[in-house]
Fold this sequence. Notes:
There is one protein chain. By secondary structure, the chain is an all-alpha fold. It has two domains: 13-73, no CATH class; 83-305, no CATH class. It contains 13 helices and two strands. It has helices spanning 13-22, 30-39, 42-49, 71-108, 124-140, 145-153, 159-162, 168-177, 180-189, 195-213, 245-258, 264-273, 296-301, and strands at residues 53-55, 61-65. Strands 1-2 form a two-stranded antiparallel sheet. The longest helix is centred in the N-terminal third of the chain and has 38 residues, at 71-108. It is globular and about 65 Å long.
Amino acid sequence: MPTKLPPKPYKTVQQQLDTYKQRGLIVDDNKKALGYLRTIGYYRLSGYAYVFRQVMPDGTVDNAFEPNSHFQDIKALYMFDKKLRQLALDALERIEVAMRVRIADRLGSFDPLAHLDEQYFDDKVRHADWVARYEAVIAREKHSDFVKHHQQYYHDIPVWAGCELWDFGTMSILYKIMRRTDKEAIARYYRLPSAKLLETQLHAFNLIRNISAHHGRLWNRHVVFKASLKGLEPEFQRFDPAKVLLYFCLMQRMLTFICPNSTWGQQFLDTLDDFPQMSNNKVSLEQFGLPKSMSLADLKAWRLWR
């Protein structure tokens, strides 16, 4: 095991900016750059600065920046990523709410309290864990109006009301442990060939939602949990499941069923159109997941966005 090093010494924002300059970054406006470092932070910006650093012949990344790399380019990439996060949260809110309702409708057709009854689930152990988590949420929300109302007049909260307490993770786990026939019925609504596809998409969406909600970096993020694409339309097979762009395309696919008149897809394409022009050619939409064989015009011509 390698020896652990002590933390790096503290640096003032001026020292942080000087470090950037010493490594070859061009700073066109010192005052603005210092302001960004004060409000965004050196460490946060470093995730965006990383792609501007020189790659050595052996594949390692050097501390020095590529020639003609500007601080303003890092800031522009940061702002582009902020727009991506806002779009992701917008789409995933709609998907979360729609999936809650669809699951609740399916379970509620069997029993108002089917979500609490293990007979409607294939994984009994995980269902018990889910119920414990759900009951903890009810206890935490005991002062909310609708929880108080149901606890005052009824024994338990029916699934069509209780689903309002599910977050994306709670919803996606419940879907995963449902009976296969019920999962398949929901997947068919979205014209998916199997429940496995929807299950893995929801898992990946939840990760992206959490990253976005906590202001993490999306644009060149490596997706650890990859959604299954087996049996999906051929166009999706061209994308790398480890890259985030695929998941924006999958969000659009679901939104065509949830809110077919939404302008979300066009907003997303407009954001890609506004990808900042960099001073060097080392940063592009390929790092977001645009296939090398596909231009942005090709992506926009895809029927998915119409």
